[in-house]
Amino acid sequence: MAKYLYGLIKSMKMKTRRIEIFTAGCPLCNPVLDMVKALAHESSNEVTVYDLVKQCEDKECLTKVKEYGIKRLPSVVVDGKLLACCTKQEITKEDLMSAGIGQKM
Fold first, then answer.
1. Is residue 8 pLDDT above 50, yes or no?
2. Residue 100's CB: how many other CB atoms inside 10 A?
3. What is the pTM of this model?
């Protein structure tokens, strides 16, 4: 029984997307932040927001910026992958949905 419950919980955890939003807390970032949160609310997603102006106590956010190769804000990372739309153009609802945000797994 314990193995079954462990497997069930593990599979439930795997069915959530980990979404990380990197922002400067500015008027250009806020609409993207709101859009991601609205879409993520429609399905089971874990959303973490990193405000790079405020930074984070342990500087994890700065490490992640380097790790993901973030060059512009706002940027959205889904399951450890920087969305292509965050490297060259405006972020659209279609870009977010094609990355699975707001979609059931």
1. no
2. 16
3. 0.71
